[in-house]
Specification:
The chain is of the alpha/beta class. Helices cover 36% and strands 22% of the residues. The chain has helices at residues 36-42, 48-56, 70-74, 78-110, 118-136, 143-153, 186-211, 249-253, 268-277, 281-290, 301-305, 356-362; strands at residues 2-4, 7-9, 12-16, 19-26, 29-35, 63-67, 165-171, 216-223, 228-234, 260-263, 295-299, 345-351, 370-375, 378-383, 388-393, 400-403. It has a 9-stranded mixed sheet, with helices on both faces. Helix 4 runs antiparallel to helix 5 (118-136) and helix 5 packs antiparallel against helix 6. The longest helix is centred in the N-terminal third of the chain and has 33 residues, at 78-110.
Length: 405
């Protein structure tokens, strides 16, 4: 930073070999100085060993919400909704931070004499301050007001981004598992499951519109069974070209860069099978969850999936394992690992008093994993930065239970 007559100027001259340089004013005049801080931010070199180490030791998911029921757990729970709202605003502003950083790097690279795009620098300073407030929960301005202020002051005048768009991936694969005891044909079962999934997706979109009223939403449905993209939709009364949506499940999780991934409940064994049967789906989900670019919400089977162990899905006998060839019995699923994105915790959704004795009997078999039992009125709020999991109850019985990592 350079301060001249109370005017703050920032002049980034060039980036060479991963190092950034800036002009600095002093009583002796202007001189060029290497900036370590700017080099770290705008440099091009990375420590490959550190990156590989991070991948070897998977952290907790960055931010997530695990629940038994959307209608009973999330819909009536203002605290959980505020967590989702803040998490998605963090994701949107983090996306803007990366975009602006890239714009500054590009202007310096292609016009080193002219320096960076100063409007982008000013915009980036606002985003940096907003992210700091959100991440440290400081400041009197609410997350939604910060977002609205950013849209009002910058987005409307930004040629690169006329509006912020929330990208939402909905995964109802667990619902699509065929019921072997059903009298309906497989085709009829799939038709009903897809209609039910679309209805539930609409409920989630409606909530997102309430939480982020000034944000347009692009949503697609992924089926991990066949990798298909279904029902692309844009809200806000805008027409979105087909090119605005991903064409494959891999595209949806990689190049499309979603802000929210919601994995619906259903047959847990089918969900696990479909995630693992195609190379890349599991890694795509791991990369998304452990980045700071979005939020994961897992309902029922979607909650079990990210825990340390899958066998809690066997305890009540609700899910039929026969849908997975070679894993047709509950015994086959004992010891099967989940994605372990919440430390050593496993998840037992739809908890009720009738299952107390069952949970007590089964918990020892999970060791060293510990089960988190979630009633339909409860959600588990996960924050990776602090490795914390907090159980929040619905508005009818609001309280929070913090769990040690």
């Amino acid at each position: 930073m350079i301060k001249l007559a109370s005017l703050t100027l920032f002049v980034l001259v060039t980036i060479q070999r991963g190092q950034a340089f800036c002009l600095v004013a002093s009583s002796q005049g202007l001189f060029l100085r290497q900036s370590t801080k700017l080099s770290a931010r705008f440099g091009v070199s990375h420590d490959a060993d550190d990156t590989n180490a991070d991948k070897e030791s998977r952290p907790w998911m960055a931010q997530g919400l695990l629940l038994s029921s959307f209608s009973d757990g999330l819909r009536p729970n203002p605290t959980a909704q505020a967590f989702v709202q803040q998490g998605l605003i963090l994701a949107l502003l983090t996306q803007e931070q990366h975009r602006l950083e890239q714009r500054i790097k590009d202007t310096v690279k292609f016009s080193p004499c002219a320096g960076p795009d100063m409007s982008a620098v000013e915009q980036l300073e606002f985003v940096d301050d907003a992210l700091e407030q959100l991440q440290q929960n400081k400041g009197a301005t609410s997350p939604l007001d910060l977002l609205r202020q950013y849209q009002k002051d910058y987005i409307s005048n930004d040629n690169e981004s006329s509006s912020l768009i929330l990208r939402f991936v909905y995964i109802p694969t667990a619902m699509y598992a065929l019921r072997l005891d059903s009298t309906n044909s497989p085709g009829k079962q799939r038709q009903r499951a897809r209609a039910d999934g679309k209805s539930r997706r609409n409920d989630i979109v409606n909530l997102l519109q309430e939480l982020l009223p000034s944000i347009d939403i692009h949503v697609v449905t992924i089926d991990w069974d066949d990798g298909s993209i279904k029902q692309p939709q844009a809200t806000g009364g805008i027409h979105a070209a087909a090119s605005a949506f991903p064409q494959t499940a891999h595209d949806a999780m990689r190049t499309w860069q979603p802000h929210l991934v919601y994995v619906q409940g259903g047959n847990t064994f089918w969900l696990h099978h479909c995630l693992h049967k195609t190379i890349g789906y599991k890694q795509d989900l791991l990369d998304f969850c452990t980045s700071k670019s979005g939020m994961y919400i897992g309902s029922s089977a979607g909650a079990i999936l990210v825990g340390a162990r899958m066998e809690t899905a066997c305890w009540k006998g609700w899910d039929d394992p026969r849908v997975v060839l070679g894993m047709e019995s509950y015994e086959d699923w004992k010891g099967t690992p989940g994605l372990s994105l919440v430390g050593q915790y496993s998840f037992f959704p739809h908890m009720d008093d009738q299952w107390n004795e069952l949970v007590n009997d089964k918990s020892a078999s999970l060791a060293p994993s510990t089960p988190i039992c979630l009633r339909d009125s409860e959600v588990c709020q996960v924050t990776g930065a602090t490795k914390s999991a907090t159980i929040l109850c619905s508005a009818k019985d609001i309280h929070a239970i913090a769990l040690n990592s």
